[in-house]
Amino acid sequence: TAPDMISFAGGMPGNELFPIETIDRIYHSLTLKEKQVALQYGPTTGLPSLLESLSEYLKGKGLPVEKNRLIITTGALQAIHILAKVFIDPGDPVLVESPSFIGALSTFRSCQAELISVPLKEDGMDTEQLRRQIESDRPLPKLLYYTPNFHNPAGIIYSKRVKQEMVELLKGKDIPVIEDDVYSDLYFHEEDLPEMELLKATDPEGVDVCYTGSFSKILGPGLRLGWMLVPEEIYKRCELVKQSIDACSPSLSQVIADKFLRNGDIHHYTAAMRIEYKKRGEAMIEALEATLPSHVTFEKPRGGFYTWLQLPEGCDATEVLKAAIDQGTVFVTGKTFDPHGVRNDFMRVSFCNTDAETIQRGIPLVAEAIKKVQGG
Amino acid sequence: TAPDMISFAGGMPGNELFPIETIDRIYHSLTLKEKQVALQYGPTTGLPSLLESLSEYLKGKGLPVEKNRLIITTGALQAIHILAKVFIDPGDPVLVESPSFIGALSTFRSCQAELISVPLKEDGMDTEQLRRQIESDRPLPKLLYYTPNFHNPAGIIYSKRVKQEMVELLKGKDIPVIEDDVYSDLYFHEEDLPEMELLKATDPEGVDVCYTGSFSKILGPGLRLGWMLVPEEIYKRCELVKQSIDACSPSLSQVIADKFLRNGDIHHYTAAMRIEYKKRGEAMIEALEATLPSHVTFEKPRGGFYTWLQLPEGCDATEVLKAAIDQGTVFVTGKTFDPHGVRNDFMRVSFCNTDAETIQRGIPLVAEAIKKVQGG
After folding, report:
1. What parts of chain B have a pLDDT lower than 50?
2. Residue A2 pLDDT class (50, 70, 90 cuts)
3. Which of A70, A18, A62, A9 is nearest to A43 (CA)?
4. What pLDDT was estimated at residue B313?
5. Contact B160, B195 (CB under 8 A)
6. Closest CA to A198 of A209, A214, A187, A186
7. Tens of pLDDT, residues B138-166
8. Domains in chain A: boundaries
9. CA distances for B192 relative to B81, B301, B302, angstroms
10. A27 in helix, strand or coil?
11. Which of A5, A204, A354, B57 has CA 20 to 30 A from A133's CA?
12. What angle do CA A28, A33, A36 make, to 5 degrees?
């Protein structure tokens, strides 16, 4: 991105939002022994102290940490990669949402999975399509990957009803679920929390739910720390895979993340981030409503990082992107998130990495670009 | 390991050897902007600043950084894992040394490679055996993995002659080489340096050499930072794989490692470590020579972390280990490092993680255990 481009493309927190003072305080509080631990190899599944503090944190989110096992991973993407290696052989079908998180798609592609896509609606995947895919003549999928809250790129929350229907369809079919939940702390409206209840929190009988999460959105992606919470038997297989891919996750990052949880810093920080991202999200909604042509539609984000604009049929997001760059702004085209890399009448416009004032300046440029392509 | 066990099992630096004061100084010197970079995602192949400083460092080791590309990885094991994913399909033969680094073996196994082993002699792999394996009726191996300097577990240095013979055998056969060089800064005798010249330094025509290395032995394994230096075409394939497995390596670790290189701290630290490990290695040699039964033989280590004891035929290292634990000491049995997991008349006794005084107390217990099993 050129320096004075307004970017709605990034999927990372803005640099100015990182809790640098807190990290400084944590670093200064470390004992010699803790610093030595930070520089040494740790256990493959994670430093015991972080496993303990993270368990407490996840327990606070209603997750069944006692009946499952936790592994610290080198980012949530590594958790998905490990699970893919455990469950997928070349050619195996895998169920994904359309659109879906590009990192997960590329991991499944690198395992040579056959991607079977289920379209998203405004409250989760289309369960009628899911039923058809499961009941088709092809071999049963080896895995279902989904992101329940503040979907990347679609921005939506799954309803309880859709999650319940997914469970009914998957029950007893030996199709484990990866529930990838990296945005759920970044809600704008506390009243959404009941609807956001995780599948893993209910640990439904007959479905193995592998819950994945990350410190990337609630502390800093540069630490490269994520986790998975999985049933015992899956844990053992994942531990072996992790041993062979990076031995253990960075100890220095783990020592810092542990303190961040133990000191309660995480609660203050996520509370502040909810306020800031809500401000940005609302600026985004306001600017879009004020400037978008009426035939471009979007779901108002209720948390997370993204808005997902649907263009009129036949309008190509790549053309809009070219026009937008001329206007001095960028976003990500829809086909990036299409499991089949084709459908391009959507665009992802993120508000995580741009402050409210810049959003107000930048969105009219995006709207202008759409109008240019529509008019042309 | 029980708290008062004397351990010769570990393959990591002793906690007391880490450059904590230097790391403190580096942390305090970081600007706000550098701390923000440390918490943010970085490019998949590594932070530009570290790529630059590491290039300089590797250039100082005679490596052809201009004609190749560098990737920062999450430990050297990840570099091996990425290369394995690039080159190996299930069932493909891979050439490894016997004995070999357990981490590499487990990575190749997780790719379902068929391990073809070539025995080690005192100055490198048995090139006559290598010739036979290459000329056999089986499909050509997809990869050769070897560790040139202060081999783990065998402790040896490859001679120039053996490396030259390997090149002659591999030339034009499309068998890329992973040259895994994580111990070469820890030499005891400067006069060994000419013999230690890397294959990658000569970049021989007709053989793609993929050089891998690590900060684990020259700064701290807890940072989880390694690298690969590879030809352009292999670089592109590796970048795609890394994108799908952890997006990027930890930025916080990279920012610190970059300063450690730029400030010249690495030169002072590795110089100090050479002195300390030499002291430990010599204490080990002295204690072994004073107490081992004469039918147990070993190559005197000239650097690195390990000594490798050959037991008399029929003597089983697992039996010795049991007796050693009774004496209050531990090491690692030979079959751990056998690509086929069988041969067990060797034992790895490391001196990296135990000071000279403890080595002098512990080695007689190891010798005692061997005598007990031999006598029994």
Report:
1. none
2. low
3. A70
4. 85
5. yes
6. A209
7. 999 999 999 999 999 999 999 999 999 99
8. 6-18+267-375, 31-263
9. 30, 12, 8
10. helix
11. A204
12. 90
Inter-chain Cβ pairs, chain A and chain B, closer than 8 A: 164
Counting other chains too, the contacts that A98-101 makes at CB distance below 8 Å and 24 or more residues apart are A98/A337, A98/A338, A98/A339, A98/A340, A98/A343, A99/A153, A99/A154, A99/A308, A99/A334, A99/A337, A99/A338, A99/A339, A99/A346, A100/A145, A100/A147, A100/A337, A100/A339, A101/A147, A101/A152, A101/A153, A101/A180, A101/A337
Question: How many CB atoms neighbour CB A322 within 10 A?
Answer: 13
Separation of alpha carbons A45 and A106, rounded Å: 24
pLDDT band at A4 (very low <50, low <70, confident <90, very high): confident
Task: State percent of chain A over pLDDT 70.
Answer: 99
Closest CA relative to residue A27, chosen from B18, B252, B222, B217: B252
What's the distance, CA B321 to chain centroid? 23
B23 burial via Cβ count (<10 Å: 0-12, 13-18, 19+) = buried
A224 to B246: CB separation less than 8 angstroms, yes or no: yes
* Rounded average pLDDT over A270-285: 98
**C-alpha to C-alpha distance for A53 and A35, rounded to whole angstroms:** 18
Burial bucket for residue A371 (CB in 10 Å: 0-12, 13-18, 19+): middle
Nearest by CB to residue B40, choosing from A15, A27, A81, is A15
Distance separating alpha carbons of residues B249 and A222, to the nearest angstrom: 8
Mutation pick from B39, B40, B101 vs chain A, by most beta carbons of A within 10 Å, is: B39
Q: Is B213 helix (H, G, I), strand (E, B) or coil?
A: strand
Q: Which CATH architecture has domain A6-18+267-375?
A: Alpha-Beta Complex (3.90)
A139 φ, ψ (degrees, to nearest 5)? -55, 150
State yes or no: pLDDT of A157 exceeds 70: yes
SS3 A182: coil
| Contact between residue B75 and residue B217 where contact means Cβ atoms under 8 Å apart | no
- pLDDT tens for each residue of B229-243: 999 999 999 999 999
What ipTM goes with this model? 0.96
Decide: A155 and A307 in contact? Cβ < 8 Å. Answer: yes
Two domains, one topology: B6-18+267-375 and B31-263: no
Taking CA atoms, what residue in B is nearest to A226? B246
Could you read off the pLDDT of A60-88 as tens digits, one per residue? 999 999 999 999 999 999 999 999 999 99
Q: Is B368 left (phi over 0), alpha (psi -120 to 50) or beta?
A: alpha
A39: nearest CB among B103, B222, B247: B222
Half-sphere exposure of A242 (CA within 13 A, CB side): 29
Query: A203-251, pLDDT tens digit by residue?
Result: 999 999 999 999 999 999 999 999 999 999 999 999 999 999 999 999 9
CA B210 to mean position of chain CA atoms: 14
Can you give the pLDDT at residue B101?
A: 97
Mean confidence (pLDDT) of chain A = 96
CB contact under 8 A, B249 and A224: yes
Specify whether the CB–CB gap between B359 and B351 falls below 8 A: yes
The helix/strand/coil state of B363 is helix
Q: SS3 of B91, please?
A: coil
A162/A122 Cα distance (integer angstroms):
10
- Distance, in Å, from the CA atom of A46 to the CA atom of A66, rounded to the nearest integer, reads 17
User: Residues B373, B317: contact at Cβ < 8 Å?
Assistant: no
Nearest to B201 by CA among B76, B70, B59: B59
CATH number of A31-263: 3.40.640.10
Residue A1 has pLDDT above 60, yes or no: no
Q: Residue B136 has what DSSP assignment? A: S
Interface contact A246-B224, CB threshold 8 A: yes
- A289–chain B nearest CA distance, Å: 31
